[in-house]
Structure formats: C-alpha cells, structure tokens
Specification:
Helices cover 40% and strands 14% of the residues. The chain is α/β, with parallel strands linked by helices and 260 residues long. The strands form two sheets. Strands 1, 2, 3, 4, 5 and 8 form a six-stranded mixed β-sheet that branches. It has a two-stranded antiparallel ribbon with strand order 6-7. Helix 1 runs antiparallel to helix 2, helix 1 packs across helix 3 and helix 2 crosses helix 3.
C-alpha cells in the first residue's frame, strides 16, 4: 500500500483547524506539526487577515527590484549615447558618473544591455583566421629547397623614422640572404628585395612565412604570394601562434640580436 501524500496546504489547514479548536496550545501544535512558533503565528495571522487564500504559497522573489534602471536614467543613457554614437558602455558610465554623481548609475554591463535592447550595438565581425595553406611543410633537403622570411618587428631611428628589418634565410644552410631595413611592409619594397635575392641566389622551391603583411592577405593570396606562385614558388604559411614552425629563422633572429 503506497504512503499517503500530504501537501503543505493540507498541513496548514489542519494546523489552523486545531488552533481554532482551542483544546491544545499553539506551542504544542507547532511541535506536533514540526514547525517553529514564528511560522505557526505567521500562518495564523495570514488566515485571520486573508482567509484560506492567506495560506497559499507565495513567491519568494522581491516585489521590487532595487537595481532596476528607472525610465529617467535610461533616457539619460540613451541621450548621451546619441551625442556620442561611438562610445561604449564603460566610457558612457564614466561620463554619467562624472556629470551626475548624485545618481547611482547601473553597471557598464547593464548599460550595454540597454544599448543592445535599443539596437544601438553593432555585432563585431569575426576576424577571419588565416591558416597554413601548405601544411605539412616541405623538408630542408638541399639549398634553395625552402627559404624563410619575416619582418623582425620595427623600431624608431634617431631621425624619427621607423625601420622594418626584412630578413630572408635559406632553411637548409641557414645562410642569411637578406637583412634590409625598409620603411614599411609594403609589397613594392618587399618585392624589390626578393627580386635581388632571386637574381643572386636563384629561385627556391618554397618560401615559408607567417600570416602577416605583405606575405598574406585577409581574403586570400596577397600580391606578393601570387607573384611567387607565378614564378613557380610555393608559399608556405605557418599557423597563427606557432613561430616554432619557422624555428630556424627565429633562431637566426636571436643570433642577430646577440651579435648586434
């Protein structure tokens, strides 16, 4: 025989009925029903004020939300954003707190939600990740099998002009073919240095680089890589965040720094 299920409402009704009977004290009834005296008197007071409806379960969530943004505050936020459409939630909050310190403004995340709800936030396009197009790479079997190339950062000269050192090495012999300071990473200037190396050392089977400019482009092959392919050279691109895939060239950079 299954156990009889007892609902909280039934227990409350039985408790109130026993209290109204008056034959047993409220303290004893609370012990019998397994509730505290505070709970017992709470049920009794609700019954006296509201009748049976007072015994129904009530939501424990607060009736008011102290963190809710008022209509006036939201209008302030939207008006400021209208004057400065490029400002994000954090900057808006800084200005709001500076101009109206007497108001407790919502957090930056809440301001962001308000802007998003009003359609004032444009979703960012995901940056297209460039991946190696010739992985696994060719081996360093002989000279001119694979060349390695990179721009070794950039730095400012004494005259204020920035210098971008282009380095090219042979993967097999580790011979440094080029170390030329350029004024930028433009295709035209980079191409001129590769032309000089091709005339002096011949054409390699492949050239291994990272995915930076001018070796790669966001929508496909760069002009420089397309030129290599027309010459019969395979562009090899290492994976993003994997400099060890061009390890021999990176090791050469460290050697340059030591003997600089």
């Amino acid at each position: 025989m299954p156990w009889k299920k007892v609902s909280p409402m039934d227990e409350k009704v039985k408790f109130i009925a026993a209290v109204c009977d008056g034959s047993v004290s409220i303290t004893s009834l609370c012990e019998t029903f397994g509730i505290s005296r505070k709970t017992g008197y709470k049920w009794l007071n609700r019954y006296r004020q509201e009748g049976p409806n007072g015994l129904l379960d009530r939501s424990k969530s607060p009736h008011t939300n102290p963190n809710r943004v008022s209509f006036a505050e939201e209008r302030f936020i939207l008006a400021l954003r209208k004057r400065h459409p490029t400002w994000g939630p954090k900057k808006l909050l800084v200005i709001l707190e500076k101009d109206n310190p007497e108001i407790t403004w919502p957090s930056a995340s809440t301001i962001g939600n308000i802007l998003q709800k009003r359609g004032l936030v444009k979703s960012r396009k995901k940056k297209r990740e460039m991946i190696a197009r010739s992985f696994p790479f060719q081996g360093y079997d002989h000279p001119n099998a694979v060349w390695c190339a990179d721009f070794k950062g950039d730095f400012k000269l004494k005259d204020g002009i920035r210098c971008y050192p282009l380095t090219i090495s042979d993967g097999y012999s580790r011979f440094l073919l080029c170390c030329k300071g350029l004024s930028g990473t433009k295709t035209y200037d980079t191409k001129k240095e590769f032309e000089r190396c091709f005339r002096e050392y011949g054409l390699p089977n492949a050239i291994r680089t990272d995915n930076g400019v001018p070796f790669a482009a966001g929508l496909g092959m760069s002009l420089l890589s397309t030129w290599w392919i027309k010459l019969g050279i395979l562009p090899e691109r290492i994976r993003p965040g994997k400099p060890q895939e061009n390890g021999r060239h990176e090791r050469m950079h460290r050697t340059l720094i030591i003997y600089d």
